[in-house]
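Suppose you are handed a protein chain with no further information: no name, no annotation, nothing but its sequence. What can you learn? This example shows the usual starting point.
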Amino acid sequence: MVHESSTIQHAMALDAADPVQLMECCSAFRNPTRFLALLQACKAVYAHHHNTAATGTTGSGTPITTPAWPQAERTAHAYYAAHDIPAGDIALQCQGTPAAIKKAVHTARVTAVRNQEQGHR
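A reasonable first move is to predict its three-dimensional structure. Written in structure tokens, the prediction is:
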């Protein structure tokens, strides 16, 4: 999780291919619950480092607003964009080796993330 959280922490400076590679390494498309839990864990660590408890209070109990963490938001948006590609259709169109299918699906996911990010700038 350390490598993955570091990648998420630096998400704002990464190319669209980087979060897709992270998702593929984490099996996010086969087990989205685990990947989204990773994002939640990273957000909790971020909140902890900013002296916020899970309840949204300081150590003295004063309510606070947890600072925004755009890295987790960018990674989550990237996940949903990459998840929505028609991977099955792409695999059928490839009619190639598993390596060719993997490459085509990866390329489609990266393109989807880039398109999504361009739409939110």
